[in-house]
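A quick aside before the break. I want you to see a complete sequence-to-structure record at least once, exactly as it would be stored in a machine-readable document. Don't worry about memorizing anything.
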Amino acid sequence: MGALFDLCADSRETSISDVVGTGNGGGIILDGNVVKGKNGFGGELGHVLIPYQSIAGIDGIKPQCNCGRIGDLESLCSLTAIEKTLLPYFLLRHPSHDLARQDPTRPPRRSAVSRIKAIRV
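That is the input. The structure line, written in tokens, reads:
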């Protein structure tokens, strides 16, 4: 976010960024100014509620965030969400997939990122 701000500091640029990891981080620059919001959380996009019930193909899913909320961006769009919510949901529906046949108690032979890229749902 700091590098992005440096690019926009002398201009009236607008930018929104979201960094996806085990959670979500990022920020908003509006007309060259960092959106701080109340208590400094203006750019905290990870806990913005999204209408997940209208996303096709995930009927019945209940995405719960580590913060306790249901249906925020982080509960569906983070590596934690993939592990805790999305993989279990889709692998129950696709039991013949390679990932469904792996023993979850054994360490993966490939990195989590390469396993995620291998998912074809």
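Two observations worth writing down. The chain is about 25% helix and 10% strand. Residues 47 and 69 are 8 Å apart (CA to CA). We'll return to this after the break.
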